[in-house]
Design brief:
Elements (H helix, E strand, L loop, with lengths): L9 H26 L5 H14 L9 H11 L14 H16 L2 H12 L3 H14 L9 H24 L3 H27 L12
Amino acid sequence: MDCFRRRLALDNIRLWALDVYPIVRDFAHLYTRVAAKCDSEQTMTFLAETIFEETGSGVEQESHPTLFRNFLRSLGVAEAGIPAASLTEPGRIHWKFCWDIARNGSFLEGLTLVGIGIEGPLPDLFRMLAHALQRQYGMDAAALKYFTIHTVSDVKHSRLASRIVSELARTAAEQARVREVLFQLWGLQKQQLDELYETAQPRGKAVASR
């Protein structure tokens, strides 16, 4: 809400962007690890389309990590200045959890994580965020393309994942595990955001210039 009301300095938005970048950078790799466990030809066809779109649909400049780096560049962060790991400990714990589930979890657990847990909440959030960054902070459409793309693509991706998960999670134990993965993920994401908010600069009308 502080971002939407222009009460956050751009330094704080920059810190958030750097902290979440490792998940953005690795997301297609996480999805690929999950998809490799799929034993259904039809389901794999759908997942392959999601991965294709995440990597730019064959256009390197349109890959989602590239678009996010464009956003970082608009915040004054050169590519050489992007750290390899999240800056906060909760961010690193969040990243590790995602990789643990993708590598070691079942296909059901992994698809729950990437397709519902990560992609599901993003369209509405990113729609509001793109609007705020453009209106309140004067950022242009090119810098915000990462967010505007996800207001459309993640609706399709998360609906597909939700349908597959609902078909696979037949037993009470499987359904309980789906809920467990989701609440663990969202709890870790909240801890990461809480940590970033704790370190935010004093809020006010003044916003750091780009």
